Amino acid sequence: MEWNKSIKELNFIFDASHNGIMVVDENGIIVIYNRAAGKVLKRNPALLIGRPAREALPHAWPDLKRILETGISQIGIKLTFGESSIVANRTPINFNGKTVGVISIFQDISEYEKIITELETYKRIIKELDAIINSSYDGLYITDGKANTLRVNKAYERISGFRAKDLIGRNMKELVKKGFFDQSVTLEVLKTKKPVTIMQDIRGGKKAMVTGNPIFDEDTNEIILVVTNVRDVSELDNLRKKLEDSRQISEKYFTELQELRLYSLKREDFIAKSEAMKKILHIALKVAKVDTSTFIGGESGVGKGLLAKIIHNNSYRAGKSFIKINCGAIPEALLESELFGYEKGAFTGARTEGKPGLFEVADGGTILLDEIAELPFHLQVKLLSILEDKQVIRLGGTKPRHINVRIIATSNTNLEKLVDENKFRKDLFFRLNVIPIYIPPLRERREDIFPLINSFLSKFNKLHKKKKRILGEALDLLMMYSYPGNIRELQNVIERSVVISESDLIGGRDIPFYVWSKEPENSLSTDFEINNSLNRLMQNIEARLIEDAISEYRTTYNAARHLGVSQSTVVRKMQKYSIKKNNA
Question: If exposure means fewest CB atoms within 10 Å of the residue's CB, which of 136, 183, 218, 340 is most exposed?
Answer without folding.
Answer: 218
